[in-house]
Design a protein that fits this description.
The protein has two domains: 78 residues, RNA polymerase sigma factor, region 2, helix turn helix motif (Rna Polymerase Sigma Factor, Chain: A), CATH 1.10.1740.10; 86 residues, Orthogonal Bundle (Arc Repressor Mutant, subunit A), CATH 1.10.10.10. Helix 5 crosses helix 9. With 178 residues, it is an all-alpha fold. The longest helix is centred in the middle third of the chain and has 29 residues.
Length: 178
Amino acid sequence: MDDFYNKYYLGLKAFVGRKIDDSDLIEELVNDILLAGFKSREKFLGKSEEFSWLCGIAKHKIIDYYRKKKIKTVLFSVSPMFEEIADKALTPERDVLKNELKAEIKKTFRELKAGYGKILRLKYVQGRSTAAIAKKLKTTVKAIESKLHRAKKQFQTKWNYDEKKAKEYCENKRINNH
């Protein structure tokens, strides 16, 4: 592992550093990438350079990071109480819980009325500015800000995520899969 680590560490650090501007996160991702690459070396077919293959793994890890960040942005903007749930759900060991959480967010979006789900998706999933949303929906920025406020309130009242139930589901799924 040490030779593998030393051979690719600096190159991967530079590669990830071009996509992410957080030295601690870069370090964490590079270590995750190297570990994933080392564990799956037998799957490497040699159709490219080994470093290129590792960069492919890195791209997937970076995409996962940004997806998790978007979910957290949606949750935190609606209510700070979701921070603890999201931190627990967004660890690598909790992929099933994460998917359950995503499904519940989508379900809640569908239950919202008056286009609130759409406006929340535009703002927090697609990352659009209020001005861009106003232009797209042919209305004013003030109207979008007001609608976003109402949409967040409605999301809070409709939100029905039962963390305990989701954890039990994950535990049962883990036991049944072994």
